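<backbone_tokenisation>
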Amino acid sequence: MKFSIITVTYNSSLTLADTLSSVSSQDYPDIEYILIDGGSTDSTLELINSSARVDQLLSEPDAGIYDAMNKGIKRATGDVIGFLHSDDIYAQPDVLSCVAERFKRSNLDALYGDIVYFQNNAGRDVVRKYRSHRFAPNMIGWGWMPAHPSLFLKRHVYETYGLFKTDYKIAGDYEYVARIFHANLLKYEYLPEVLVKMRMGGVSTGGLSNSIILNQEVLRACRENGVPTNWFKILSKYPAKLLDAIFQN
């Protein structure tokens, strides 16, 4: 089983070295690593070119993060596709080995796990944990999705359901989850392990204005995919997330 891991970058020189090192440290032998760069003007490309682990590099302007992610998918040749963003790292060197074992054992279409958020120090300063255990197809209308950096999909899923919609600003990954999981036709499993450490400060953790845009797009994603929902359902996830955070500490 071959993995295609896609990292999307743009002026990511302050964090990308950790991401590159994280992929290089994986003990799984069959990894295709694809870098899609939006035309960086800092030292991002120098970092990429100095890494022996990168298999494909495309650097050109794009129409946003989902356009860049689509470019990576189109270039992927692996059996399983995963995304590791340019400020994220894998939690352990055996993450992809564990994911591969579960895919093979259960003949899966999709697998997802948990993530933790950190501030700095290469993932040692953990701020909070996002557990994907609440997700199921019937919870999409309640605003729940697997942590996207922990979601691995067989390439045929993208071939069947298409690519990300590029007119979403923040919740294009949510829309994609709604699209592929709503009919409950995929064979999937939840792996109750932290797979990815995600640095705080990204677009999905960018404050109140981004949260408003996110929830507006979540509502739109549900409506476009025939998922029954309303504002009460979508906002009800926040008390549950707060309780999770309290009991984790």
About this structure: DSSP finds nine helices and nine strands in the chain.
